[in-house]
Amino acid sequence: MENKKPLSIIKIGGNIIDNPTELSQFLSDFSMIKGNKILVHGGGKSATKMAQSIGLTLQMIDGRRITDKPMLDVVVMIYAGEINKNIVAQLQANNTNAMGFTGADGNLIQSTNRNHPTIDYGFVGDVKKVNTALLETLINNGIVPVFCAITHDKKGQLLNTNADTIASELAIAASEVFDVTLNYCFEKAGVLADVDDENSIIQQINTALYAKLKEEGAIHSGMIPKLDNCFNSLSKGVKKIQIGHHRMLKNSNAICTSIEL
Amino acid sequence: MENKKPLSIIKIGGNIIDNPTELSQFLSDFSMIKGNKILVHGGGKSATKMAQSIGLTLQMIDGRRITDKPMLDVVVMIYAGEINKNIVAQLQANNTNAMGFTGADGNLIQSTNRNHPTIDYGFVGDVKKVNTALLETLINNGIVPVFCAITHDKKGQLLNTNADTIASELAIAASEVFDVTLNYCFEKAGVLADVDDENSIIQQINTALYAKLKEEGAIHSGMIPKLDNCFNSLSKGVKKIQIGHHRMLKNSNAICTSIEL
Q1: Does the CB of A28 have a partner CB in chain B at under 8 Å?
Q2: Which of A35, B17, B21, B33 shows the smallest number of beta carbons within 10 Å?
């Protein structure tokens, strides 16, 4: 069995993106991570703010946002334009050779428009395939890919796509050729055993403990799809997943939640 | 002397971008061009429309647009987000493996903030250097780069940059490794000898004829910097420059203006 090269995939969300000081600190820390790496970023609040400032009404069905055509235009502008390109420029200033992508670029992530039996989510994509060969070529040429949460259907349509899903699908696909560690950064230090106690970080979760925590109700509703997603990724070849505050990337002794099968 | 591979660089402007039918036809024609190619696109009217819809006032000094911070945010969103990513998605639908870039991506085009003795243009960049090695690697891997008119200063700042200049600077830099033909597409069939006569296309301009036409006043003010730029590019290694309607790309017998030294 050949030795695969390591690859770190790091996903950041709105809590970092919406705070310029935090984002700048994170990008500096990210630049210090040695070896092959990919950044995936979510959207933050600026798409909602932009939508409001041009008079769009946010469409919600069953608490889920619907991406109609005007909203798709806004998320493409903000995610692929404003946020992605400012992150790339800041990483370049930190001597990281970042390149910003949607899934349409190089056909890196192709998706299909979600076909739900009862809800029309609009221009939302579910990931279908990753162009692993091109991703590997880019990484082998010293490029640090930076993905925003936009994909395409290869028929000319851009699609709004969940950033956590993009991170996990990239991780699964890249596992063919790399030893992948997937890091989800959020505002807390890790998954909490008690949602009211910031110090109750569960440092390791495996399949058995996860079943037990779900049964006990210790892991709350919003965390379940996230963790299901993690175990799915691990079962498909991802080596290791960490969930926590982005300081875990800088300090390997920082407490976070490690997930394994 | 080794044989260089041919490379076509095509620049399109607002007249194509603002017309969805025209853009779609152009992108289909562009996809049919054989061999290595790069697309450079300008902005069109949507940045101005977006600026107005969020209540920005366009700043003009001596008839030139000033790119203040709010306007920079808008052009980044529109050029690098909306326009660039929709072009890339449409090219992918045409089986062209397009990848959309600002100059910040892969540090492909680094510029310096314009330092004018009397006018503060704001966040406007003058191209300083092109990352030719990475551009060549991308092209050799079958990628069709699509550049919008945004660059960066390598210190974290994105900069608004003239699309014609980006096209010519890319052409000059790429001439190190490719035989470059640079095509400027605009609404007319070529450079007119008589601005009121659409049939007065000058089919060939060389240095001597250019001097004569300027002296006679046949070439009007707006065309002078464009042609100066062309002769500069040719003197720096670009093989051939064509100016005309984009149908010249599809039909090699279509009348256009060819420029040579």
Answers
A1: no
A2: B21
